[in-house]
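Continuing the batch. This is chain 6 of the set; chains 1 through 5 are on the previous pages. Same settings as before, nothing changed between runs. Recording input and output for traceability.
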Amino acid sequence: MVRVLIPSGALGLGYDHDALERGIANKPDLIAIDGGSTDSGPSYLGRGVSKYARSSTKLEWAGLMDAARRARCPLVIGTAGTCGAGRAVDWLVEITQEILAERGETAKIAVLKSDQPANRVVDALGANRITPLTPAPDIDAPMLESCTNIVALAGVEQITCALDTGADIVIAGRTTDTAIIAALPIAKGIDPGPAWHAAKIGECGALCATNPQSGVIQIDWEGAAFTLTPLADDARATPHTVSAHMLYENADPYLLHEPGGTLDVTEARYDALDDTRVRVTGSVWRKATGYNVKLEGARVAGYQTVVLAVVRDPHYVTNAATWAKDIIAKCTDKALQRTSATADDFTIEIRLIGQNSVLGDLETRVADPVEIGALGLVTAKTPELANEIGKLLNPYLLHHPLTREEEVPTFAFPFSPAEIDRGPVYEFCLNHVMWLDDPMDAFTLEVLDA
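Output for chain 6:
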């Protein structure tokens, strides 16, 4: 049997300490936790930084380091520092060394990095070793060279190499959420089908249980089956909660593509062993004929200034979309007339918070809000141009009337100055896979004695 303990869906979200203690007492073979994802947008990858507070990360990571030491098993984190870029990995390594020094302890740390130099990806593109996924933007050498960070998503092969060093702690750059869980059972002879399937179900901790925020879960593999057990007092796994997690961040509820193959759960069976545990059988791994890793890249898309106004007059609330459209047209014309900018140098948006700021034209729900927040977004090629156009937008958001004949209205800015310079904004610009001859060709592994 192989046992893996997953304390939480991500480092920084917190975990149930009593449940973690139960997990330690059950003597796991590995403690695995995810460090982040792309959920919060491209800025973290673009800048190579974590979205979670250092103080919270250090406190939780220190608790897991202690747990792994007491359980006498390795501790693995994937996608360290939210984005998995090298700078974020180094940030967590520094925190780890700081914790060890404060405790007077030592540890062997395997550091797996996923960073891809632009020239490596350019060469792969020229050798027809890059395949677009759907949808994917067109890419070329200049676009790749404009990326501030490119990472590849490691699979079980790379995590296995890191564990094979005998490290006490593995700090990995960008990985698939599942790889850090599936690697050890596969290395110990568990069939890849149930290994990958359990990893997919357990990737977000207790999100596959009746109390999603309770955190800690335990996965046991034996033969061709795995059993999932939430460890918090008020959390239960059911066939519904477990099977439903195949839908999480996955386009197909039966197939999951990972480096080296595809998980197929079409014939999987989910059986409740009792009120808490679920046993799963029937998972199949279909090995691919070649090996590829998904690429993620981010680059600066421009510089942004934001202006927020609050509209309460019922006449303007009702006609907010018409009002915003007119402001955008008039301010765009003014910016073209009064600056040296061309139409390709900037964009102006107004998102109507309380009406359709999330879905835009796709919104189908209609309501009568008391007030609407008009969030003006100016994105331009330079910070100076973004700020200048933000100042041109300012008087429109404060006083612009719906028609020429009516009295000039007054809306509200919640703060002064109204313009906020956000600096550079980033965009994801890759949705591609890169084919490798050897799984480690695009990754680096270093072992530190700390």
